[in-house]
Amino acid sequence: METFNIHYAKTHLSQLVERAAKGESFVIAKAGKPLVKVTALEEAPARAPQIIGFMKDGLSVPDDFDTMFQKEIEEMFYGSE
């Protein structure tokens, strides 16, 4: 595994990133002391596609949706009549 000093790594960052992306690991050192190991990331697993409309027949909106619990809410704000 190759080792590069931090100055070289800063100067040639894009080249080193390309090498790491191709699977080539390397170490970045400061004053000859290894600091980090650079390796390529694994690809994230593919997500299953979302199914649109899977509940289209399972939901219904009541006719009084806009006024549901209106009496209870008014009582909370204004008190009982």
Descriptive report:
The mean pLDDT is 90. The protein has a domain at 2-38: YefM-like fold. It has a 3-stranded mixed β-sheet. The protein has helices at 6-11, 13-21, 70-78, and strands spanning 2-5, 26-30, 33-38. It is of the alpha+beta class and 81 residues long. The chain contains 3 helices and 3 strands, in the order E-H-H-E-E-H. The longest helix has 9 residues, at 13-21.
Supply database-style keywords.
three-stranded mixed beta sheet, YefM-like fold, 81 residues
CATH domain topology of the domain at 2-38:
YefM-like fold
Level-2 CATH architecture of the domain at 2-38:
3-Layer(aba) Sandwich
Low-confidence stretches: none
CATH top level of the domain at 2-38 is Alpha Beta
Task: Give the gist of this structure.
By secondary structure, this protein is an alpha+beta fold.
Task: Break the fold down into its secondary structure elements and pairings.
Layout: E1 2-5, H1 6-11, H2 13-21, E2 26-30, E3 33-38, H3 70-78
Parallel strand pairs: 1-2
Antiparallel strand pairs: 2-3
